[in-house]
């Protein structure tokens, strides 16, 4: 192996993979604890928060790896590795906070309850990115998530009712069909009985003669 091999990037990537495995393992434990069998992804709030914390990390994982290796190979491996470690730590804090409460998934990254600014500046000072985090916004987002969850449950119940209604209509149609067939069969039996009576009367008259 050459001395210029991206060992730092590989080490950070391996560490991130271990983190993803740990989060998946924690979801499995939560399934067992709350008796939520696969493939269901809904259950008690504690399980749903644990599941969403893992899924959120999974959704961002490809972007993290692409950014890590692109910056490490074409710019600075050390800088990319350090930034990757910071990201992994921040992700773990985020996941731990999310498991406890939806309001803590971002608040866990703050050391204060007040609003804070996070500023990231480039070395030449030309570009500055400011992210404004507000506690009120987090509460509103938590309420929005709760409303979304309730709406999804209502939609699921609506679909269930529609399925039940369709099944009831199908059963009614089948009953009408069976009733019609029974009427035809009853009429056929009556005709046979009438014909049998006629034949019996004819035979009796023939014997008398």
Automatic annotation (TrEMBL):
Bilayer disposition of the protein: Multi-pass membrane protein; Peripheral membrane protein
Presence of the UniProt keyword Cytoplasm in the record: yes
Compartments reported by the entry: Cytoplasm, Cytosol; Endoplasmic reticulum membrane; Golgi apparatus membrane; Golgi apparatus, trans-Golgi network
Any Pfam family: DUF2205
Coiled-coil portions: 147-181
Any one annotated GO CC term: trans-Golgi network
Sorted UniProt keywords: Coiled coil, Cytoplasm, Endoplasmic reticulum, Golgi apparatus, Leukotriene biosynthesis, Membrane, Transmembrane, Transmembrane helix
InterPro entries: 5_LipOase_AP, MAPEG-like_dom_sf, Membr-assoc_MAPEG, SCOC
A single MF term (Gene Ontology): enzyme activator activity
Record flagged with keyword Hydrolase: no
One GO biological process term: leukotriene biosynthetic process
Chief localisation class: cytoplasm
Domain of life: Eukaryota
Annotated family: Belongs to the SCOC family.
Role this protein plays: Positive regulator of amino acid starvation-induced autophagy.
Alphabetized PANTHER family for the sequence: GEO08385P1, SHORT COILED COIL PROTEIN
Name of the featured protein: Short coiled-coil protein
Species this chain originates from: Collichthys lucidus
């Amino acid at each position: 192996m050459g001395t210029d091999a991206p060992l730092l990037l590989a080490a950070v990537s391996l560490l991130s993979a271990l983190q993803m495995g740990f989060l998946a393992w924690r979801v499995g434990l939560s399934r067992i604890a709350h008796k939520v069998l696969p493939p269901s992804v809904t259950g008690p709030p504690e399980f749903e928060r644990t599941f969403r914390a893992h899924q959120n990390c999974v959704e961002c994982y490809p972007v993290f790896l692409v950014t890590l290796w692109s910056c490490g190979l074409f710019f600075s491996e050390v800088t990319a590795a350090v930034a990757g470690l910071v990201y992994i730590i921040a992700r773990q804090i985020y996941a731990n906070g999310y498991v406890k409460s939806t309001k803590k998934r971002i608040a866990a990254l703050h050391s204060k309850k007040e609003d804070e600014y996070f500023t990231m500046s480039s070395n030449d000072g030309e570009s500055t990115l400011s992210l404004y985090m507000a506690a009120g916004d987090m509460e509103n987002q938590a309420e929005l998530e709760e409303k979304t969850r309730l709406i999804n449950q209502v939609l699921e119940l609506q679909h269930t009712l529609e399925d039940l209604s369709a099944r009831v209509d199908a059963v009614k149609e089948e009953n009408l069909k069976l009733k019609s067939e029974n009427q035809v069969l009853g009429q056929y039996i009556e005709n046979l009985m009438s014909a049998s009576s006629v034949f019996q009367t004819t035979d009796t008259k023939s014997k008398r003669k």
